[in-house]
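Input chain follows. Return structure tokens only.
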Amino acid sequence: MRYAALLVLVLALAACGSKKSTSGTLASQSPSATPVQAVTSAAHATIANGGEHVAVTATVSLEGQKLSLDGNGDFRNSPALGKMTLKISGSGLNATVEEVVSGSTAYLKTPLLSSQLPVGKSWITVNLLKTTTAFGVNLNSFTDATPTTTLDFLSKTTKATKVGNGHYRATVNAGSGAKAIPIDVWVNGDGLIEKVTSTYTGTKIETVFSNYGEKVSVNVPSASETVDISKLGG
């Protein structure tokens, strides 16, 4: 179960994060915009707003175990800063995860892994730009294979079709060597990303954006409180 719990944390982690990108015009509001232009423009415009509230729900199937995840948080897009509280349940598991993202570093605090921490440490750090292995699992293979950095992925959409009013079905490239990911995207009347859903490799994720442009304040854990996840579990 500790493997499954760990992977769910990583999957949840980046579902709410977005990377720095340049702003664009609101092509999504133009009647002549192609589906690709509508999606990419809405992603750029959402990032340019600065910050947003994010609600994430997900179901994950791992090694025959089905887990559910429910999270809410607030994130600033550039430079990246955010916080979220996640609840994980299913297969006899019921736990809460606190998550902080600052730049390219993610911080996780949960009783699921507390027994693995050195004395005096309460937070686990994950460098999102490094290849990281912990508990015998390559974490980056999971973050790269899921619609994690949602807004940044959508800003690079190369294929999309219009399904309904403000509803698009897009295909995004998750990274070198990874399969393309099908994503459903809803753009609101202001030309901003409102909701994103995806089903991929046994994982279903829904991300809903709101409170665009909100200010985000986060207390980032200090170095004395943290330990890198690569140092845990071998």
